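pipeline: protein-struct stage 2 | run 1193 | MFS transporter
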Amino acid sequence: MTQVEESPGTPSARQRSPRGGWAGVAALALGTFTVVTSEMLPVGLLTPMGASLGVSEGVAGLTLTITGLVAAVSAPVLVPMLGRADRRTALCVLVAVLVIGNLGAAWAPDFGLMVAARVLVGIGMGGVWAVAAGLAVRLVPAKSAGPATSLVFSGIAVASVLGVPAGTYLGAAAGWRSAFLAAAGLGLVVLVAAAVLLPRLPAERAIPLGGVMGLIGDARVRTGLVVVGFVVTGHFAAYTYIRPVLEDVSGVGAGTVGTLLLVYGAAGVAGNFLAGAGAARSPRRTLLVISAVLAATVTALPWLGGSVALAAVLMAVWGLSYGGVSVSTQTWILIAAPDAREAASSLFVGVFNGAIALGALLGGLAADGIGTTAVMWVGGALAVGALVTTAAGRAPAPAAGA
């Protein structure tokens, strides 16, 4: 493995430049928020997107599947391809790809061109997430590395729980294409912020693709990736189709769906920071709680969601639990591979997004083949799989001071 780390006597990038620090961490958090929001925008827009593009809701859900698959493949491949490239420059290029993809999605006159645009979104998303995940520790003093990394991950969690309702509201007010235009505009803000606020970030090391894939041989990393696969697939099998489920079960309209998603999102923000603190002490215990609550909540929604009030409570509990998934699972992976953060993160992003794609696909098959509420049973069963794997698999031990 070719090392390109700075020598011990060389000042770090943040010492040589006034840029970086918490402002740079905030730019990374805004970047992760933007890429994950861009990926998941179709969740709250399936009904109008499908009608406009002339496809069913199940087919429209493939726009999420395609993006997730591309991100799953691109993340582990892009990190070795970047080699010694400065990470600030790489981030700017990848965000530019994301912006072009969102502009293409906003313009797409048919489903084929929408797919092409979403491929670009997947490439940009997979690369940005994988690179940004390990950079926070290079921007702040060592004693602040944990909170800084959690802040970067919070961009992912907040996007997961707030990006969708924001897109739903905007789509209802100004049309679904406006949501993609807004995402493109936000991407431009991230591009400028990264260029201005980040210092030069030379690659820590060049890692071949074989080195990235070799991490799977570590039982702790492997267990964490399997847990990610179960819990994220289960969540997105259900959540991708939450709008038609709520419309069928609760009889609500687009405005109320947006409100329920906002309740879910607000709870999810709290869940992110609660889980972040818990995962630093015990990733296994935190994920056991998350998986159990997800399984119970998703399964209960078809039974109890007929009442809008109960649906709101269930959405809040769902958001509280899933809001902690990204920070808990990413913490598990980084603790398991402390000397290969970027490589481990690229695997994590690959599995995470592959799970998003698989979840959206399974949910679409269940929705079109059995009925919309069937997606909840699929999601609950997979959450149980995450619970069993977390309990039985090998977990990493947090380092002292984590």
